[in-house]
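Splicing factor 3A subunit 2: structure tokens wanted.
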Amino acid sequence: MDFQNRAGGKTGSGGVASASDAGVDRRERLRQLALETIDLQKDPYFMRNHIGTYECKLCLTLHNNEGSYLAHTQGKKHQANLARRAAKEASETPFLPAPQQSKVEVKKFVKIGRPGYKVTRERDPGTGQQALLFQVDYPEITEGIAPRHRFMSAYEQKIQPPDKKWQYLLFAAEPYETIAFKIPSREIDKSEKFWTMWNKDTKQFFLQVAFRNEGRHDDLPPAPPGMQMYMQY
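Answer:
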């Protein structure tokens, strides 16, 4: 805005702007800013009439160009009408309760006891590698359920005092109780020598655990008292 040659001003310095001049300058700056940031195509109240001028459908005002309309949208009248329209729409909108979240049904099974099992110690005659073969019988297993297994460290279980020499192998299948076997805490050979099989016809689950050779092992250590330990998750 040029403040030169105004009453009360000195040549070479800014003059004293009147309130009306400052208002014109403010509206012009708002118009330029709005032209750069506002997309009129998305304004529901912007309309071009048949004679080429622009109308504000909210305030029922006429404007000669887009800049004039944008300057109007930044004014108090348009902002006040926007607030009144929002309040009216909010009061007319019926209260809708929040939709209820669908509950995930947790399957519950009545435990029928511990499954039968058999543990066989194995040794590879060529390499001397030792392994354990587990057979767990689930004759009354729930339809569509497959047995599961996982390893648990001695520090994760809460049944016996932790001993780093041992780890636990758990078997689970509904509706049977979960059973766990206490086995040596040695590195497991995860090659083809580690395998599982679920026989759906005989309802028997097989799992073979082979231990990596770590120096000389004359034999698997004897089972401690209560090697077959039972627990529930």
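The helical segments are 19-37, 66-73, 76-92. Residues 8 and 131 are 104 Å apart (CA to CA).

Cheers.
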